[in-house]
Design a protein that fits this description.
Layout lengths: L1 H15 L18 H5 L9 E8 L5 E4 L2 E2 L1 E4 L4 E7 L7 E9 L2 E9 L6 E4 L11 H18 L27 E4 L2 E2 L6 E3 L6 E3 L4 E9 L3 E9 L2 E11 L6 E2 L4 E5 L10 E7 L2 E3 L11
Parallel strand pairs: 8-9
Antiparallel strand pairs: 1-5, 2-3, 2-6, 4-5, 6-7, 9-10, 11-18, 12-17, 13-14, 13-16, 14-15, 15-17, 15-18, 18-19
Length: 292
């Protein structure tokens, strides 16, 4: 009701001033007032997300999956929901979460389905980006340690929203989970979503957050990690310009940098990762574009 009243007052003021605007309202799901919207995230496949109803509790239950803390948000009528990230390496079949609530510990079983991802073959001109030199490997290992620590961050605050707008407006070129081959050699599956947009395009954070880490990395190029709360992390890479620094507090829509072609790329684009409980998951789920 308060949101509707603020919207009505804002529109009244704009109409009196003679302004004309076009607005797109994105539902903010911080306190799960619309439980059906939260369940739209439920795609329990490898590389996907499981939304699990935990039932009522006096305080937020503490949930873990594969020994890592899980995002828990309020549901309806005093209930709670766990939003669980499922990595590409999770074994399909029965899995379980551990729930600690009101002095009790219990488990809940859910089923993870397999998913077949397509292949992608790319040609990289800089062969060191395919077969790094020994000095490159030393640098890469140091960078992996930094990024792994960022992905494992679990801050207590609730995310401002878990239904996301896309960080840029543009077509997708490479989807999550693609089995990738660089110059004919197999490499790790694609851990995010690529957007084909021109260099210099501003990149907006899809939810409030704190900047965890920035840097220029061997594979990722110029990179920004944003902590949205409770293990929900965005990573943006291949930027031409980084516009934030670690510790900066961001509101949804703030610009974190600009699209570029740094790191291992074939041209300008944005690569966006979404991580939940240290599992890289399909960003398409969060922007309503998941394809089974």
């Amino acid at each position: 009701m308060r949101i509707l009243l603020l919207f009505k007052n804002s529109m009244t003021a704009l109409l009196k001033s003679g302004s004309v605007i076009f607005m797109v309202l994105t539902v903010s799901i911080a306190h799960a007032s619309d439980q059906s919207a939260l369940f739209s995230l439920n795609h329990p496949v490898v590389g996907g997300v499981a939304v699990l109803a935990l039932g009522p509790a006096s305080n937020a239950p503490r949930v873990t999956f594969e020994q890592k803390p899980v995002l828990v948000v309020p549901g309806e009528h005093g209930t709670w929901l766990a939003i669980v990230g499922i990595s590409l390496t999770t074994t399909p079949g029965p899995q379980h979460i551990e729930i600690k609530s009101d002095g009790r510990t219990q488990t809940m079983t859910f089923n993870v389905q397999d998913k077949k991802y397509k292949e992608q073959r790319l040609t990289i001109k800089n062969t060191r980006q395919v077969n790094p030199l020994p000095d490159d490997l030393k640098r890469i290992n140091q960078e992996i340690a930094l990024q792994t620590k960022a992905y494992q961050t679990f801050s207590p605050r609730q995310p401002s929203n878990v239904i996301f707008p896309a960080p840029v407006d543009g077509p997708h070129t490479s989807s999550f989970g693609l089995k990738r081959f660089f110059n004919g050699e197999a490499r790790a599956p694609h851990s995010g979503m690529d957007f084909a947009v021109p260099a210099g395009t501003p990149i907006q954070t899809p939810a409030d957050g704190t900047v965890l880490l920035t840097g220029n990395y061997f594979f990722n190029g110029n990179t920004v990690f944003v902590d949205h709360g409770q293990g929900l992390i965005s990573m943006f890479c291949h930027l031409s310009v980084i516009g934030v620094k670690p510790g900066d507090t961001l509101s949804r829509g703030d610009v974190v940098g600009k699209v570029g072609a740094t790191g291992r790329v074939t041209g300008p684009h944005l690569h966006w990762n979404v991580s939940l409980n240290d599992a890289r998951v399909d960003p398409a789920i969060f922007i309503g574009q998941f394809k089974p």
